[in-house]
Amino acid sequence: MKFLCLICAEQMMEDLEPDDRAGHFAEYAAFTEAIRREGHFVSANRLLPAATARTVRVRDGQAKVTDGPFAETRELIGGYYLIEAQDMDAALAVAARIPGAQRGCVEVRPLADDPQTRALGLDG
To answer: How many CA atoms lie within 13 A of 40 on its CB side?
Structure first.
């Protein structure tokens, strides 16, 4: 099964002191290499700060675009890992090792794997 691990934190990489940022990147590099070796890695990336985000809402056929993330919250989504794991328990064990879990939280969500989704080619 595939799981999306959304990494949420109050501070983005760009906001960290240079030495802290370098150390945090090193932690991510080591984690990523480990889950590659273990066969869990599918994809991952870091997101740019929320100030670069735009949110689209369509109401009454009209698209409205606003600046920023979709919700007011202290913790922002800073990146993600798409992983392969046998079940939710295994995915949670991998997510607990994500360095960002020590500074914020990681939301783990299974990807849909049903006939309709596969028919649309959305299963990756």
So the answer is: 24
The gap between the terminal CA atoms of the chain, to the nearest Å, is 11
**pLDDT digit string (tens) for 20-60?**
989 999 999 999 999 999 999 999 998 887 778 888 889 99
- Token pair, residue 60, equals 């009454």
Model pTM score: 0.84
Six token digits for residue 61: 């056929």
DSSP one-letter string for 82-121: EEE-SSHHHHHHHHTTSGGGGTSEEEEEEPP-SHHHHHHT
Q: Are 6 and 98 in contact (CB under 8 A)?
A: no
